[in-house]
Amino acid sequence: MSEDIKSSIEPQFDFAGIGIDDIKKEVENLSSIENKTGFFIVKTANQWIEEAKNRPTPKMLFSQFWYEGEICILFADTNLGKSILAVQIGNSISRGQSITGFNLETSKQSILYFDFELSDKQFQNRYSKEYTQNYVFDDNFLRIEINPDLDLPENQNFDDYLINSIEQSITQTGSKTLIIDNITYLKSDNEKAKEALPLMKKLKELKNRYSLSILILAHTPKRDLSKPITRNDLQGSKMLMNFCDSSFTIGESQQDKQIRYLKQIKQRNCEQVFDAENICVCQINKEHNFLQFEFLQFGNESEHLRQRTDKDKDNQTEDILRLKGEGKVLREIGKELGISHQTVKRILDKQISL
């Protein structure tokens, strides 16, 4: 066959400008698995890691308690200083200055503080010297109150309008860090799963859409002060804990009513650093015109719990026996009651021997 005839019937390819690296890349693209199926996006584990490498590593906003890009819940009983600590954290971020005893890895930035607790006069009282010599916040600290004269638009309920207003505040200011004080205002019945689920879903959608970091304040119901604080002490704990990335709590020391301690409850970006054996012990102090937490030392939670009475011990034994009867193993019982599985075993063994 002549060369002219052969060239006329063979397919023509133009390899000009195409190198071996281009061919390899195309082969990799063709062989990779990336599929969208309903709710799911399917990729190889290596693809997920490769894409994650291009995203920034989350930085600390408040030591290992709260990182960038997280929905974090700070919960405690009433009057233990949740708002005091939250404002202090917001002030730290807005100035780009860490709180003594804690780490801040980000540069200064604007924060939105949604204050559904205090009036402007109450806020001034906390950050002034008897309503004079006011503390001067950085202009990056943007405090937000509900407009009391607002009428809801027709065909829109309170919950949706509130979330929409939060989103408008984000787009108008460009802020990436939010503090919501507190969640009970967003949902009056958040201890119920059916109420907590849509609320956290909406906040998570906002977080993903705008790459936000959100700190949410929440209450605990009345609890046994002789027991360590666990995730079960948060109102609506199951739904809220499932949707948040991290959580920490404030406990009141039974040694001194002015002493507080901070304890990690849930974390995803790090190991649990501040557990029951390494709590951050603080005191609330107003130095001149700024009410704040002052770090004192690290400690053990057991040292700050109320001494257990015989009645407390009987109640704990009843709880252990009940959970054991429900088919839970030692570690599950210990986790739910905030005690070690060895303690659970010791109490069960004692009951068997009686």
Report on this structure:
There is one protein chain. Helices cover 37% and strands 21% of the residues. Helix 10 packs across helix 11. A hairpin with a 2-residue loop joins strand 1 and strand 2. By secondary structure, it is α/β, with parallel strands linked by helices. Strands 7-6-8-9-5-10-11-12-13 form a nine-stranded mixed beta sheet, sandwiched between helices. The chain starts with a helix and ends with a helix. 26% of the residues are buried. About 5% of the residues have low confidence. The protein has three domains: 34 residues, no CATH class; 245 residues, Rossmann fold (3-Layer(aba) Sandwich), CATH 3.40.50.300; 44 residues. It is globular and about 70 Å long.
